Amino acid sequence: MEVIIRETQQDAVDLTALLLRDLLSSKPHAVLGLATGRTMEGVYRRLVEMHLGAGLDFSLCRTFNLDEYIGLPRGDVGSYRHYMYVHLFQHVNIDLRNTHLPRGESDDLEGECVRYEAAIAECGGIDLQLLGIGRTGHIGFNEPLSAMYSRTRAKALSPETLRQNAGLFDPPSRMPRRALTMGVGTILEARRCLLLATGEEKAGIIAQAVEGPVTSMISATALQLHPRCTVIVDAPAAAHLQNQDYYRWVFENEPEWDGYQ
Ligand code: F6R
């Protein structure tokens, strides 16, 4: 794992978008694992700007989102399919047939999870998985005690996650209590993981995720086991990290990051 601390939220968002751009430029057929949530809105805004301004091409890429709520009608304004359409898909030249989210409206949820895993495998696996982190330390909707080897499945959302996201529903009681989510094991199979966290409210959980012991109580700690995981944080989200100087030193000295300083 490596940790990159950028001063501002915008700097952290910009670096994340640049890494996605560079992957798409070098590998137009890339398979992207995508996330939703407030943190990602700025990343998608930058990608749309790169498409409109510099012609960043999405026409050949394939995308798989981490998760989707269970029980919302397809196209519901609270669904992650709708989020992706509003924030990214409608603005860029992506082929919607190449965009995948678990179908939370399916009446065969188990079958849907098997189908989703098979679809990822058929595309050759995920090149880069974009991740946010929830207050419980979830990645995707892998709530506390999610097995490290878990696969795509239905999960009950924790009370903390309900509090985190209910405000995005009108009325808040409309928020589903369950979601389909890639498992921790599914996420760890991505060739690269990129976790973005910004804001002081993420400082505590980021410190646990990066510097704490690996535990299924905090799914994001599983990323410590991944051979190629980059965590990008702004200064407020980095505030509780013990080894900030070391992370900054690595970023300044690893040639890989030369063009990104
Ligand atoms: C969303 C997802 C979640 C969010 C996390 C952070 O697809 O998988 O893990 O990334 O809940 O959400 P925000 O960015 O709203 O704090």
The SS-based structural class is alpha/beta
What is the element string, with H for helices and E for strands? EHEHEEHEHEEHEHEHEHH
Q: How many helices?
A: 9
Bound molecules: fructose -6-phosphate
Broad shape: globular
- Overall pLDDT score: 98
Number of strands: 10
Distance between the termini: 18 Å
**Quaternary state of the chains:** single chain
Q: Major β-sheet, in short?
A: 7 strands, parallel
The parts where pLDDT drops under 50 for at least 5 residues are none
- Please estimate the helix content: 25-40%
The strand line-up of the biggest sheet is 1-10-9-6-2-3-5
* CATH architecture field: 3-Layer(aba) Sandwich
The Cα radius of gyration reads 17 Å
CATH fold-level name: Rossmann fold
Strand content: 15-25%
Count of domains: 1
What is the class in the CATH system? Alpha Beta
Structural features, described:
The protein has one domain: Rossmann fold, CATH 3.40.50.1360. The protein has a seven-stranded parallel β-sheet. It contains nine helices and ten strands. It is of the alpha/beta class and 261 residues long. The protein is globular. Bound molecules: fructose -6-phosphate. The site of fructose -6-phosphate has 13 residues, from helix 2.
In short:
This protein is of the alpha/beta class and 261 residues long. The chain has helices at residues 9-26, 38-54, 80-87, 109-122, 159-165, 184-188, 203-211, 235-238, 244-253; strands at 2-6, 31-34, 62-65, 67-69, 99-100, 128-131, 153-156, 178-181, 192-197, 229-234. Helices cover 35% and strands 16% of the residues.
